[in-house]
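Slack export, channel: ligand-projects

TW: morning all. Re-posting the request from yesterday since it got buried. We need the structure predicted with the small molecule present, not the apo form. The ligand is zinc ion; the SMILES is in the block with the sequence. No rush, but it would help planning for next week.
GE: picking it up
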Amino acid sequence: MKRTNTFALRPLSDNGERLLRELLDGSAALWNQVNYERLMRYNDEDGFEGDVWDADTGQLEGQYKGVLGASTAQQVIRKNSEAWRGFFRLKDQYHDESNTSVTEHPEPPGFRGNEDDGRQLKTVIRNTSYTVEWGDRSRLEILVGSDLKDRYDHTGRLRLEIAGEPNWPDYEQQGRLDLWYDETDNTFRASQPVTIDDDTRDTPLADEAAALDIGANNLVACTTTTGEQYLYDGRELFERFRQTTREIARLQSLLPEDQYSSQRIRRLYRKRTRRRDHAQAALCRDLIERLYDEGVATVYIGGLTDVLETHWSVEANAKTHNFWAFKQFTERLATTAEEYGIAVEVRSEAWTSQECPQCGSTDRTHRHEDLLMCQCGFEGHADLTASATFLARQIKQAVRPMARPVRFQWDSHEWLESSCSLRPNEQRTNRSTVPRDGNLAAGGLA
Ligand SMILES: [Zn+2]
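GE: finished. pasting the full token output, ligand included:
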């Protein structure tokens, strides 16, 4: 079966780092040139596949093989071809009326980087053009072009140190390696697809499950069948997102009338997106690693999109849509889960957030901030309760969280366990502020 190892890389010297950067930059330049040639032909043909494939990529390959090596130049071009084929496939599906899975017109493949920030450092290396050695001092060796070797007075393959342990150290085959520079934390990273024998899977997944409640204040509330609960707090992250959004609006109001954007505004947009993406990627990894350790084989995610339209206030709705980018998040989560062999299932069904886990009532409950209360006497953290109810519905049996819920907060770099992880009795602090006269109707979000 197919799995992926992802890891951080460290060049062994400044010279090695410069060489690596030039290799990645050259790959992005080649991608952009190939893509430009194809895009021109695509636009010429008025949006038909036409002679996109007539672009002279052989000539470009010749031009870049001195820097990248012939095999890497070929891989970059091949990957661009795959992107174009994927685009045409989506476009066919979009125009096929019997197919409802593609609802937005797809865009042709994009360029790596932009004028303001420069090229996006990224390459792809054929499975026979790199080697990985796992051990106390794990390392990666990649092929580089002869021109680069001459320029940096380097012989043989370029060696890089691998930080951390692989998820799948034993495999039968390795696939094409992706290697890139991650600007959000200034780290070189790689992902290595591998094929492993079904029998050699060293930590077999148990048959456990987990369910996620996704929201704006608490980004993810999770309950597992092993009795664990996790809560990822998004308030601070959202506050920073909102500050940047305000700053963008302020700058926009200062623009001359005939101008819609500026370099500074575009940079703020990108910064805002990068920060969210970074937190989101880190959350997926942190959560999936925990679930993997718990023996979770399936993760259920509620179909937030449907739910938003009917149950959430307009403000909460916009807040979650813009900030959290739900679709992107579930895709990212699924990709990360796939690395660990965990299945992700998105279930759009009835809203569980207002349901009392004790008596099953939805119209006798009331939510105040993070607290869900019911007239039957139940009190608990609303989002954690929702994830537990959702999980119970998926596995068709009652779920009783046993461990103290663990709360995580974002510190701009990683998700840290908060010192004030919720004890059950801490969930009751709002009691005095809420009337308990029995006349409460189920309210929406306050
Ligand atoms: Zn109740």
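GE: first-pass observations. The pocket of zinc ion is lined by residues 356, 358-359, 361, 364, 374, 376, 378 (CB under 6 Å). The first strand starts at residue 2 and ends at 11.
TW: perfect, thank you
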